[in-house]
Design goal:
binds nicotinamide-adenine-dinucleotide; Dihydrodipicolinate Reductase, domain 2; Rossmann fold; 393 residues
Length: 393
């Protein structure tokens, strides 16, 4: 990272956040990540759907009360009119609010950092893509796992041919017990993630599997052409699928599979991948993220570790500590903020900035993710039939 950009820019990047207030699951992670390296400040927010919680959350973060808003509509309008307006907004609400909120900020010339899944459906995702392109704003989708230096290492190695041609892409994202394995009797008491009314019965494909699919594309450069999906509901009273097995066909005869689950009992986060090529395979496990293992066909395993010169540039420039001092999830998430803030600063200084965006999950990733969700949903409805993912953006 290039911290000299901060002094050249003369201030930190001003961020506002929608959602993410006290009691939310992902908000605190964003706050830790955005502050980690000194590139960003949190200066505004509509931090909760409940005004009292929104203001209490803002006070806790020392946000000026004038910039603590009760709705994102008010925030977009009033921030856009300020001379010290926010440079970018973080959208950390449930997915059904992502597009309506992002639209308001993009239209007012404010860059967007958006939680996944990008939108409620493919139509909204395509509208997002068009608006990002027509406004020329910067956009980052927080598929945070690509911020791990060893995920970036895997990408660099696979793209440089370390496995020969890729043959099989094997992704698992299977947490064990998502809060509860027994849903409350009153449907209204269920978390939005487990209410079919919020994101449909196949919401696990956006909530969990979208990370795995984006990672598969990130490390291999391949986008699935077809999917066959089988989903099940295990937990009593559950109204959304809590387990998904997907088989994929990628271009060039490459095959893949993805397992997403909320009920892989005993697992913690359960995110890992193995990519097999002609000459060996690469494996990575998010619960031991500092290490990437290359196992060639005819030789012993080689373990790549964060913090060594022998790693790829994208891995070397995504860390703070030498090998042996673990960084972990929070700083992997922070790498997205570092990249995004550097792009904002460099762009404002009239310098080249595309290099800062090269590892970041994009609005195109969001569209690809929604195509996968829609195709897998259709496939499951048709008994697991092969279904086209519609690979053109
Ligand atoms: N990147 C990751 O690893 C990761 C992890 C968890 C969640 N997420 C994503 O983050 C998003 C939020 O998930 P969560 O688990 O934190 O949800 P949550 O229900 O815990 O929190 C959502 C927050 O949004 C607020 N909110 C809802 N509607 C709002 C509105 N109209 N205006 C302002 N605030 C509003 C709520 O009050 C709450 O503070 C989802 O899209 C989810 O998929 C991503």
């Amino acid at each position: 990272m290039d911290k000299s950009l901060i002094s050249a820019f003369g201030r930190r990047v001003r961020l506002g956040m929608v959602g993410g207030g006290i009691g939310s699951i992902i908000g605190e992670t964003h706050i830790i990540a955005l502050r980690a390296d000194g590139f960003c400040d949190l200066v505004a927010g509509a931090l909760s759907s409940r005004p009292e919680v929104a203001h209490r959350s803002a006070a806790q973060e020392l946000i000026d009360p004038e910039r603590s808003y009760e709705t994102y509509e008010a925030m977009a309008e009033q921030e856009a009119a300020r001379p010290d307006r926010i440079d970018a907004v973080i959208i950390a609400t449930p997915p059904q609010h992502h597009w309506p909120a992002a639209k308001l900020f993009l239209e007012r010339g404010i860059d967007v950092i958006c939680e996944k899944p990008m939108t409620r459906d493919l139509a909204e995702a395509q509208a997002m893509l068009q608006l990002v392109r027509s406004t020329g704003r910067l956009f980052c989708l927080t598929h945070c796992y690509t911020g791990y230096p060893m995920a970036r290492q895997a990408r660099a190695m696979i793209r440089a041919g370390a496995l020969g041609a890729v043959r099989m892409i094997d992704m698992t994202f299977a947490p064990g017990d998502h809060g509860t394995s027994l849903e409350p009797e009153d449907p209204a008491d269920r978390h939005w993630r487990f209410q079919a009314a919020s994101m449909g019965a196949t919401s696990i494909l956006g909530e969990v599997n979208s990370h795995a699919y984006q990672m598969a594309t990130y490390v291999t450069g391949l986008e699935a052409e077809q999917v066959s999906a089988n989903l099940s509901m295990f937990a009593p009273r559950r109204e959304v699928y809590d387990n998904a097995y997907l088989t994929m066909r990628y271009p060039g005869n490459v095959m893949g599979r993805m397992w997403a689950s909320y009920v892989a009992a005993g697992n913690d986060q359960g995110f890992s991948f193995r990519i097999y090529g002609e000459t060996g395979h690469i494996s990575w496990n998010e619960e031991d993220p500092e290490y990437l293992i290359l196992k060639p066909m005819a030789g012993p395993a080689v373990v790549y570790a964060r913090g060594y010169e022998a790693t790829a540039q994208a891995a070397r420039t995504s860390l703070r500590y030498r090998a042996g001092f673990p960084e972990g999830y929070g700083l992997a998430f922070a790498n997205l903020y570092v990249d995004f803030a550097q792009a904002i600063m460099a762009r404002a200084l009239g310098r080249p900035f595309a290099q800062y965006l090269s590892e970041l999950p994009t609005v195109e990733d969001g569209v690809r993710g929604m195509k996968m969700i829609e195709a897998a949903t259709l496939s499951h409805a048709n008994g697991g039939a092969w279904t086209d993912c519609g690979t053109r953006l």
